[in-house]
Here is the input.
Amino acid sequence: MGDRQKQNKLTVTLRFYEELNDFLNPGRRNSEFERQLPETTSVKDLIEGCQVPHTEVDMILVNGESSGFDRLVRDGDRVSVYPVFESLDISSATRLQERPLRDPRFLADVNLGKLARYLRMAGFDTSYRNDARDEELAEQMIRENRTLLTRDRRLLMRRVVEKGYLVRSDRPVDQLEEVMRRFDLAGKVAPFTRCMHCNGLLCPVPKEEVTQRLRPLTRKYYDSFSQCRQCERVYWKGSHRDRIDPRVQVLLGMS
Ligand SMILES: [Zn+2]
Here is the structure.
């Protein structure tokens, strides 16, 4: 037996579908390719070995059969890997990601501060700290059962990350649209129920209680106010509207 054969005991054929191709080297996109493996490995490690984070994968077929991440690959296996689909009937197959999220709770990575504010504006529980270390993010994600939003693919490949999403777009408005589409959030939007600054919940507050803190024109033209339970910031209808990107207003059903 030659050295080459000893080193590569298994040959597996892979094919990635749809946007999972974004993660692959150009030569591997939208077509089958082979990988030689020195020893058997889990389907999850095989997929991440191709630089595709497991959190992006919703369905795996091995030789046409639905498979989980833990299955060990065998010589000659054909592995097809699918992303989260919006509308494809794969009800008989095992879906690997919970979707839609029943209780969407997010944790935004350090460079997604503006997206975090938009998600809070839409009423979604979104934790964000620009000083958190990776370990702290991971710990909070598990403790609070949050879905990690990040632009760092390596972070998603960490074993502790169960739910996560790699944000592709550069612009915050596009990011908001992308995340809303991916997690099917359109029907769950509740603008101005959550504080954009601290993620605290807003509660209605009588005008008398906050009147000292309002500018004269606000005091004159507005009657209903909310206050953040956590940081006590005061909000009113129109308080930020003029400054909000029109596309965000459309996404949040405000216009
Ligand atoms: Zn607040």
Residues 14 and 21 are 12 Å apart (CA to CA).
